[in-house]
Structures are given as structure tokens and as C-alpha cells.
Design a protein that fits this description.
233 residues, alpha/beta, TIM Barrel, eight-stranded parallel β-barrel, 8 strands, binds cytidine-5'-monophosphate
Length: 233
């Protein structure tokens, strides 16, 4: 079943407190159905807050990028699945991905893999002991994610078309680095408009500052949903 445009927008709640997150969710109201929590909010009381969002009918993406021994990952993922989250990120190491797939078994949770962090360049990979360059390592991990049964990948909109060729139609591509025409890039280096990201093959768009820091966040979210609805995939 094709996704509704509104359900393809994920708003990154990159705020320091539950109080601020609650105020933002209230302002956005029915305009936004899907929220992403990262380290900052999760470790500031964000988990009970996320449970409340789920109880209120919203979808939750926990961007916690898990990575540990298999048993620990599988048990952690089981707990996340029980709380009713929709998406959870893990680092794209084969052992970690297999454990995450095992841990979510029988639930509605979808596991997204992060192939190579976008802050890493060739020199960072070499310093970390890797022999492959960024694009080769991204491609290898994408193939592994596909073969292990991961549900989707987090990637930049620029990588989406290439990754779609590797992973096929089954995996969801979730792209941050989205900037509506005319909005500030901030620290994002490789950005695309919502319409272009959808045309490049993205299934879900993660948007933070262009909505959360807008003078009228609800209007900003509505404009992005309208752009998604018009975009040609
Ligand atoms: O404010 P902005 O729209 O740039 O927020 C993008 C969100 O996506 C942030 O929560 C950021 O941590 C996340 N993200 C990213 N680039 C990645 C992975 C995650 O910007 N490669």
C-alpha cells in the first residue's frame, strides 16, 4: 500500500527537554505523524515521552545507532520493540544487524542500518583501520543489510538512487539532509529539497531545523507534506 505523504515526513525532535518537545508536538498537532528522537532527548527523559507519543497514535523513530555484542543488541532491540517504536537505527556491522533482526522478530519494529556515518571521510576510515573508501564501504554494508533482512537504510539523498540500485525495492530509504528551497543549510553539506529527495528514491524524509526552528513550524511542516504529495517518484 503506498504511503500517505504525511507519513513520509519524520520530524527530528532535536530539543534539550521533554517540555520543549511536548510544546513542539502540540504546535505541530495533526500536521505531523512521525517523530525522531536522538541521543539528546532520549537521555533527557525522552523514552517515557516517546511511549506517550505512541499511545497518542504517533509513530516514533529511535535514532540510537546501537552497536554491541550480539546478545546485548538482540535484548535491547526486544525492549524497543515492546515499547511500540516504528524505527530503530543500528550501525551496519553484520553481527549487529543480524542480532537486531533477531531481536525485533514478530514485532512491528523496523530496523534501519547506518552504513557509514556521513561525518566520516576517507581519512577517518583509514584512521579507524578500514581499507575501503567511503563509497565502497557504503555499498558493501548496503549489500550485507539487504542479505541479512534489514528493513531500511539511513542515507543522504545524494546516495539514494545508487543505494536503491543495490538494495532493490524492499528496503526503505530514510534521508536526512533535507532543505526546502530557500531555507538555511546549517551544518548539512549535501542537501536536497523534499521533492528532489523523493524523486531520487527516498521513502521517508527526516527534517529537523527547517521545521523546529521555523517561525511557524506547522506551516513549514504542511508545506513539506504538500511538496512530498506533489513529488514524482
Ligand atoms: O536539522 P536537520 O534537518 O539537519 O536534522 C537532521 C536530523 O537527521 C538530525 O537529527 C541529525 O542528527 C540526523 N542525521 C543527519 N545526517 C545523518 C544521520 C542523521 O543529519 N547522516
Amino acid at each position: 500500500m503506498p504511503l500517505e505523504a504525511r507519513d513520509r515526513l519524520i520530524v527530528a525532535l532535536d530539543v534539550p527537554s521533554v517540555k520543549e518537545a511536548e510544546a513542539m508536538v502540540t504546535r505541530l498537532g495533526p500536521s505531523v505523524s512521525f517523530y525522531k528522537l536522538g541521543y539528546q532527548l532520549t537521555f533527557a527523559g525522552g523514552l517515557p515521552f516517546a511511549a506517550g507519543l505512541i499511545a497518542a497514535g504517533k509513530q516514533v523513530f529511535l535514532d540510537l545507532k546501537l552497536h554491541d555484542i550480539g546478545n546485548t543488541v538482540a535484548k535491547g532491540v526486544e525492549s524497543v520493540a515492546q515499547m511500540g517504536a516504528t524505527f530503530l537505527t543500528v550501525h551496519a556491522y553484520p553481527q549487529t544487524m543480524k542480532a537486531a533482526v533477531e531481536g525485533k522478530h514478530g514485532s512491528n519494529l523496523k530496523i534501519l542500518a547506518v552504513t557509514v556515518l556521513t561525518s566520516y571521510d576517507a581519512a577517518d576510515l583509514e584512521a579507524a583501520g578500514y581499507k575501503l573508501g567511503v563509497s565502497d564501504l557504503v555499498a558493501r554494508r548496503a549489500e550485507q543489510a539487504r542479505d541479512i533482512g534489514i528493513d531500511g537504510l539511513v542515507c543522504s539523498p545524494e546516495e539514494a538512487a545508487n543505494l536503491r540500485g543495490i538494495v532493490g525495492a524492499r528496503l526503505a530509504l530514510v534521508t536526512p539532509g533535507i532543505r526546502p528551497a530557500g531555507s538555511a543549510a546549517g551544518d548539512q553539506k549535501r542537501i536536497m529539497t523534499p521533492a528532489k529527495a523523493i524523486a531520487a528514491g527516498a521513502d521517508y524524509l527526516v527534517v529537523g531545523r527547517p521545521i523546529v526552528e521555523a517561525t511557524d513550524p506547522k506551516a513549514a511542516a504542511d508545506a513539506i507534506v504538500a511538496e512530498i504529495a506533489q513529488a514524482k517518484k
